[in-house]
Structure formats: structure tokens, C-alpha cells
Amino acid sequence: MWTKRLGWIAAGAVALLTLAGVAGAEEAAQAAQAAATGWGKAIGAAIAIGLPAIGTGYAQARIGAAGAGALAERPEVAGSVTILVAIPETAVVLGLVIAALIIFVA
Known about the structure:
Blueprint: H1 2-23, H2 25-34, H3 40-73, H4 78-86, H5 89-104
């Protein structure tokens, strides 16, 4: 029961972060153009990867611990646990894409 709630919470968080990123994309592009000189690109790329990595590490630690307990009780939830552990990792992948765009395109 709690794994379903955790899954919905994780899915909602990913959807919210995605929508927030799409809504502010134009403003972010303008800010990136303004800060494209000197260390601006490097700092922007580091933030684009670093912050999602910290959040993902925290989320995966919590989900992994809960998933290990769930697998001990019910081994048939292995697929769900695997998916729940992989969902936060998408934030880091998106951060990596954004960092590449900042460095190579802006």
C-alpha cells in the first residue's frame, strides 16, 4: 500500500519538476545568454548537474531502504521497486542534457 503512495509521490514530483522546467525555459535561455561569458557556463552546468544529483541521491537512499524492506516481505514487488529506484535518476539525466546544452550551445 505504501509503495503505491510512494510511487505516486515520486511520479508527481517528476511531473511537477518537468512542468516547472518547461515553463521557465525561455527565461532560463535568456539568463544563460547573459551569463555566457567567463565562468558563467561552468557554474551553470555544475548547478544543472549538482542539484539534481543531490536530490536524486537523497531520494534513492530513501526509496532503496524502503524497497529492500518491501522485497524482504514480498519478493514479487521487485519490478516496482526497480522502477521506483530508477525514476529519480531521470532528473540527473535531464540535468546532464541541460549542462551539455549550456556548455556547447549557449
